[in-house]
Specification:
Length: about 100
């Protein structure tokens, strides 16, 4: 969650930096924000509504988190020489899955 807050603050402070990022990096950051959001969602409870919510959260984690560790590593290698991109990728947890 701290990473998500840092990323949001970094994007805001650079005034629309996401628009100037390579497309694959911007898409990755958006998906990663969604992944971190769903990882932080509460999933306890036994009511039908809570079970439905738990299934939705689990599906969302599968959708947005699967493969992010490998994609982050690949993006860090690809953009190692791009300080602006690395400033956004470096703080992300390498092992989220």
């Amino acid at each position: 969650m701290k990473t998500l807050l840092f990323l949001a603050a970094a994007l805001a402070s650079f005034g629309g930096l996401a628009q100037n990022l390579p497309g694959e990096v911007a898409r990755f950051i958006e998906e990663r924000k969604k992944c971190e959001h769903f990882l932080g969602e509460p999933v306890e409870g036994r009511t039908a509504e809570q079970r439905e919510r738990r299934d939705f959260v689990a599906d969302s984690i599968d959708l947005y988190c699967s493969g992010t560790d490998k994609r982050l590593a690949a993006l860090k290698r690809r953009y190692a020489g791009n300080a602006r991109v690395m400033a956004l990728l470096r703080p992300l947890e390498a092992k989220l899955e």
